[in-house]
Amino acid sequence: MIGGLLIWGAHFGLVYAFNALACARHFAGESYLGFGIVPLVIVGTTVVALAGVLVVLLLALWRRGPARGSQDRSPADDFMRYTTMTIAALSFVAITWNGLPVFMVPPCG
What we know:
By secondary structure, the chain is mainly alpha-helical. The chain has helices at about 5-25, 35-60, 75-100, and strands spanning about 30, 35. Helix 1 runs antiparallel to helix 2 (about 35-60) and helix 1 runs parallel beside helix 3 (about 75-100). The protein is elongated and about 60 Å long.
């Protein structure tokens, strides 16, 4: 149920820790394949995190209760499913929001 929040938290921590480390160790200006190392890592981390949240969302959509496809599932199953989907969708937005500054603000800026 909290898979999306865990992925968002890991993404948030990794993005800000890597940016802080790059600024503190003075390798924020480095580039790899013509792209800055900090934007490249942040975009890569964001894509992986978004893919993870999509997996959580798709698994919640796929899960139908104790007997898949049966009509005798409890309201608690539906509540858990919809809560998982809502948290995953909000985590998707939060991860996107955390990754956007890489296109607007320079590293260490």
